[in-house]
Design goal:
Length: 441
């Protein structure tokens, strides 16, 4: 009897086991109820949009080719990313839940006079969505279609997507330039003109005095100017004097070959902004005041702080004059005991001898680690007419550079051959070079 009971259990268990195995192969079952879309439309098939914002703005956008353009209440280029977000959300918006198929009063949902309305056309047919109040929890918004009484919920993020003013929808770029092709930058103020030029991929200071520029600093300023955005537009701004644009605080020009884009900066506006104007257009607008602050910086803040371009890996000759003695180190190629060619440092003056390569590289690192902490003009008393130390490099086979160092009671200075003025340096930098030189010798 017991054996019969076991057999019956096996008969029941085996099919159940096969069913469980087969069902596991099918993967987990998604019991989430499918939500209906508000509209059955593809984003790229939409060719016209109308928006009524909570502020009362009515804006019409029309697609021309692959680009969207504002056609009402003004004609202007649009912010393509913002409009793309609108079309994408019109195509993907889902009904979260139906609240009432036939509500007696739309007022309780804020739909008797909708706050926001968005309409679109595709193939000549128009569809419209009306948005009312947010739900008490704030996660959804009451919505309806104008040709239906049904009230339903849509996600609350659609409010910020569709509730857009005309200014929100327009392209806010100030200057139309190709950032990658910019090869000159000029900043003119009442007191000075500062000009940078890009040559062979490197930024150089052209005015007020020729010199090496800190690439990242100048390139960062070019990026800020070329990408500056309007914060607001000033309507009917015919009197430029009212905005300080009759005599701009600063005028900045970006050059790209023979073409040029120019921006004038005027007086301070509200909420951390300044008035500005693209000199090729009549529109007056505001921009963030931080750009104006950047344009007030002195040219010295954009100068290259590294005194040397040479580094230990690309240097082939180092000459140092200290205490009226010239010491020269040269990198040569020799064959080791296995007949393989390798690089080796030698002292060639004042005497020819082998030196510890690691100590020469430590000396080069000490020298190239010296950086400017500031700059002074040629009238300053720097003591560089009688330098304490002179360092000359040959590197990358054919390049060379020379820097002199001196100290006075006021501080330590350095001058690079071919660069105007002198740099302030930490006196400890000179001490480090002298010590490293002593270690080699």
């Amino acid at each position: 009897m017991r054996g019969m009971r076991v057999l019956i259990l096996l008969v029941i268990a085996i099919p159940l086991g096969w069913y469980a195995y087969y069902d596991s192969k099918k993967g987990p079952v998604d019991d989430t109820p499918k939500k209906d879309k508000v509209f059955s439309v593809e984003a790229d098939k939409i060719d016209e949009i109308e928006l009524k914002s909570e502020s009362g703005d009515h804006t019409t956008l029309r697609k021309k080719g692959n680009e969207w353009e504002i056609v009402q209440p003004i004609t202007a280029a649009s912010d393509q990313a913002t409009v793309s977000g609108i079309t994408s959300n019109l195509a993907s918006a889902e009904i979260q839940r139906v609240i009432d198929e036939n509500p007696p009063d739309l007022k309780e949902y804020g739909l008797d006079s909708p706050r926001v309305e968005v309409a679109f056309k595709t193939n000549g047919q128009q569809r419209r969505l009306q948005l009312g109040q947010k739900t008490p929890a704030g996660s959804d918004i009451y919505a309806k279609l104008p040709d239906s009484k049904r009230v339903f919920l849509v996600p609350s993020f659609l409010d910020s997507t569709f509730n857009r003013s005309t200014f929100d929808l327009r392209d806010k770029s100030v200057l139309k330039v190709d950032r990658e092709k910019v090869d000159s930058l000029e900043v003119a103020t009442k007191d000075r003109t500062m000009r940078f030029e890009k040559k062979n991929g490197e930024w150089q200071i052209a005015q007020p005095a020729a010199g090496r520029a800190e690439f990242s600093a100048v390139d960062g300023l070019v990026s800020r100017v070329s990408s500056v955005q309007m914060k607001s537009i000033v309507p009917d701004a015919t009197d430029l004097k009212k905005f300080g644009l009759d005599k701009p605080v600063a005028t900045v020009r970006l050059g790209s070959g023979s073409s040029q884009a120019s921006l004038a900066i005027g007086s301070a506006g509200e909420s951390g902004s300044v008035y500005a104007k693209d000199l090729s257009r009549p529109t007056v607008f505001t921009i963030d005041s931080s750009l104006a602050d950047d344009l007030k910086k002195d040219a010295s803040e954009y100068r290259q702080k590294d005194l040397f371009d040479a580094r230990s890996f690309n240097t082939n000759r180092l000459e140092i004059v200290h205490n009226n003695q010239t010491t020269v180190f040269e990198k040569t190629k020799v064959k080791n005991k296995d007949g393989k060619e390798e690089e080796k440092w030698k002292e060639t003056a004042p005497a020819a001898k082998d030196v510890d390569a690691s100590k020469v590289e430590a000396l080069i690192t000490a020298v190239t680690g010296a950086r400017a902490t500031g700059f002074v003009d040629t009238t300053a008393k720097t003591g560089l007419d009688k330098p304490e130390l002179t360092v000359a490099f040959k590197y990358d086979e054919a390049k060379d550079e020379r820097v002199t160092f001196a100290r006075t009671k006021d501080g330590a200075y350095a001058a690079r051959a071919g660069s105007p003025g002198a740099a302030k340096v930490d006196a400890s930098a000179i001490d480090s070079i002298v010590k490293a030189l002593g270690d080699v010798k």
